[in-house]
Amino acid sequence: MRIPHSKPFLPPADDYKAKVDEIWQNGWLTNHGPMLRQFETEVAEYLNLSGVSFLSSGTMALQCALRTLERGGEIIVTPYSYVATAGAVFWEGFTPVFADIDPVSLALDPEKAAEKITSKTRAILATHVYGIPADVEGLESLGAVVSTHATKVFHTANGGFTVCKKEEDRRQIDLYRNFGHDGPNRFASPGINGKNSEFHAALGLTLLPFANELINRRREQWEHYRDLLFGHSEFRILEIPAKTEHNGAYFPVLGLSAQRANRVIGVLEEAGVEARRYFNPSLNKVPYLKGGACPVSEAAAESVFCLPLYHGLTGADREFIADIVLKNL
Ligand SMILES: Cc1ncc(COP(=O)(O)O)c(C=O)c1O
Known about the structure:
Blueprint: H1 13-26, H2 34-47, E1 52-55, H3 58-67, E2 74-77, H4 83-91, E3 95-98, H5 110-115, E4 121-125, E5 143-147, E6 160-164, H6 167-176, E7 181-183, E8 186-187, H7 198-207, H8 211-229, E9 236-237, E10 251-254, H9 258-270, H10 295-303, E11 305-307, H11 315-327
Parallel strand pairs: 2-3, 2-4
Antiparallel strand pairs: 1-6, 5-6, 7-8, 9-10, 10-11
Helix pairs in contact: 1-7, 2-7, 3-4, 8-11
The chain binds pyridoxal-5'-phosphate.
Residues 57-59, 81-82, 84-85, 127, 147, 149, 160 line the site of pyridoxal-5'-phosphate.
């Protein structure tokens, strides 16, 4: 038996096939067809927001969002994230400036971020770590960028979207994602191919009715892990701040020494359980990103690991995994 770290939820195949039949009838595969437009509308309704643009990946969505800022200068980022975030900042010609994370939430520490603000700062890019909203109170938000990659709680296989507060930003991103076209043979702006296909939108539309169920199930699973592992003096469970809704995306084990974390990961591996270091390395250590020291993030990157968590993971699986963790500290 092998228990992977994550597994995408798949809706009933017939639901997806019905959408594919529609694509066949429409004969429209990409370039912002009816399926993609409908998906954007339904995502906006689900989120109770407007200004949603669906793109080919979360990274592309981030790059197009960054392009709406004045070029050059610095963007303050967390070192404790996947490389796509700081990497996109670098790729778009900004200097990523790392501010260390809060040792409890492991999200960007707002005070440390404030200390890094200079006359060259263009924006602060806050990442919502482990499915818990970052502390963005007090920041003037331009919008949100979401990845719908297959590893996410809600996914479209590949994809991502931007949610813009200002209509002009949304219009600009819609130009960027489509080579700058504002009509046939007309180019109002530079642009790139950030388009996503009707098939990805169809998968999103098929999954959207399951979104609440997916989040609720993840939270139940998350709480089950917490009940199994809570109160142990050797390690810590992530605290969910009061009045905060999380989506149970990951279950990290915090606070072990790097050596003990390695031992537990190794024993889990021998038992066929894939525990993953999320996030490693600390991004200030990535050679081309050249960040200064971020001791809290660096220590977390060496010790934190996440337990398997996905829709089909059973209660017995979680008990099996928790038992191994507790017996091998
Ligand atoms: C924080 C963060 N930023 C960016 C990305 C990149 O998204 P995508 O894989 O859709 O390009 C991901 C997910 O992989 C992520 O977790």
